[in-house]
Design goal:
Layout lengths: L8 E6 L5 H16 L3 E5 L4 H7 L6 E7 L4 E2 L3 E2 L2 H8 L5 E4 L6 E4 L4 E6 L1 E2 L5 E2 L2 H5 L3 H7 L3 H7 L1 H7 L2 E4 L3 H4 L3 H24 L2
Parallel strand pairs: 1-8, 1-11, 2-3, 3-8
Antiparallel strand pairs: 4-5, 6-7, 9-10
Helix pairs in contact: 1-9
Length: 204
């Protein structure tokens, strides 16, 4: 991760069991080390962030991770378009969405990473946009399927959505899930990324 995580929400899109959640947790440990915050949020629902906001806990999280989540809150009500944009808006002053018991507010520049599964279409081909289509994020689904022409044709609304997202396609082979290697690489990456972050903020 570079300073890109301060501007875009990341989606890890891949087959079930390819190591997305393990990768998420490894990345979260990096952010904990970088921020000096010992905790991070990792969940399967959006609603808990409302209560966490109410009690001031979101500020103590190094990052926010979701796995197999549905874009619903307030007891299973789908988020509207603006609320979904807010969830993805890492670089906004404070982005919020309605949640059960209390409005959820996500702090600015706190990394947000979703891990979502692919599916197979009728021809047995991998559909990288399935989760997005099922959760009202059709434009990001186009991005996942690399349908750039369709995004342009959809106009400004599509662009305003996809500019907030970046998509990675991890595989078990690509991740190389060896814990010793991950921990060694993390220490090196922390040093490099801290230097990059200093340069990023110096240029703002």
């Amino acid at each position: 991760m570079t300073s890109l995580h301060k501007r875009k929400t990341a989606f890890l899109v891949g087959a079930a069991g390819c190591g997305k959640t393990t990768l998420q947790k490894s990345i979260a440990q990096v952010f904990c080390a970088r921020t000096g915050l010992a905790r991070y949020f990792c969940g399967k629902a959006l609603d808990p962030l409302g209560i966490m906001t109410k009690h001031g806990e979101t500020a103590n999280m190094s990052c926010f991770m979701w796995s197999d989540v549905e874009m619903k809150s307030c007891n299973n009500i789908p988020l509207d378009v603006e609320s979904m944009k807010n969830v993805l808006a890492v670089d906004d002053e404070a982005s919020s969405y309605p949640a059960r018991y209390h409005v959820a507010v996500l702090p600015r520049y706190k990394p947000r990473i979703f891990s979502v599964n692919t599916s197979l279409n009728g021809e047995g081909e991998i559909n990288y946009g399935h989760w997005f289509d099922m959760n009202g994020m059709d434009y990001v689904g186009m991005l996942a399927r690399r349908e750039q022409m369709a995004i342009r044709a959809a106009g400004d609304e599509a662009v305003s959505f996809v500019r907030r997202a970046i998509i990675f396609f991890p595989t078990r082979e690509l991740i190389g899930l060896n814990r010793a290697n991950i921990e060694a690489a993390m220490q090196e990456e922390i040093t490099i990324e801290l230097e990059r972050e200093k340069l990023y903020f110096a240029g703002m």
